[in-house]
Specification:
Length: 224
């Protein structure tokens, strides 16, 4: 059955207008992006197939052009459009966290970090440098590592904090394994960074670990 034959209240576009985007499932949101299905499949059917194939929206967003285009009905144009949507969302969140107190927008910071890190296949360590009012000066990727560990040098982090004239910093790194729990080395590293930055009067406000759909906060866990 075509989506146009569905009851008006169940069609993704009409449903979004009436109830808001949050009321839609991942497949329904993706179907609106796809606009049309293929022979024998509605846009929602095709969206469900994509989510089944890649496992989640996160993995779909991170899919290579080759893997994406191997799905019947997909092509380079749709791949480019999808990447543009993801990048617009990332930039919008970037703007949001730059225009106010980062501590008063924890949801935006978390969402920004998830968009930035959760699909990375290599472990990445970054810092969001903040001024005295906790406004974002600059997010900066500092180190990359293997799939299992990252070498982070406190001296280099201090140099970057001084370069940005930062008063505070939020750290984040990803766990490509998909497990958001902090390791012993994560805890030790955080303590070393706190001690090193305290010598130049820069506060560590939080350290996030992004893994799959999870995003753990050291501050919320009482680990800072």
């Amino acid at each position: 059955m075509s989506i146009t034959d569905w009851p008006a209240g169940e069609r993704p576009r009409e449903k979004l207008v009436e109830r808001g985007a949050a009321a839609l499932s991942d497949a329904e949101l993706l179907a609106i992006f796809l606009r049309t299905g293929v022979v024998g499949k509605s846009a929602v059917d095709l969206a469900r197939e994509l989510l089944t194939q890649f496992g989640s929206l996160t993995q779909l967003f991170a899919a290579s052009e080759k893997a994406f285009c191997e799905i019947h009905g997909m092509g380079r144009a749709k791949f480019v459009q999808l990447q543009a949507v993801v990048e617009m969302a990332r930039r919008a969140l970037h703007e949001e966290i730059r225009t106010g107190d980062a501590l008063n927008s924890p949801g935006a910071v978390r969402s920004y970090l998830q968009l930035l890190l959760r699909a990375r296949q290599q472990e990445v360590f970054l810092a969001i440098f903040l001024d005295a009012q906790h406004r974002v000066i600059e997010p900066e990727e500092l180190f990359r590592g293997t799939l299992t560990q990252t070498s982070v040098y406190p001296r280099e982090v201090v140099k970057r904090a001084l370069h940005h004239n930062a008063a505070a910093v939020i750290f984040a790194h990803n766990h490509p394994s998909g497990v958001a729990e902090p390791s012993d080395s994560d805890r030790l590293l955080t303590e070393e960074l706190k001690k090193s930055l305290a010598l130049v009067d820069v506060r560590v406000l939080d350290h996030f670990i992004v893994a799959g759909a999870g995003c753990l906060s050291f501050a919320e866990r009482g680990l800072l």
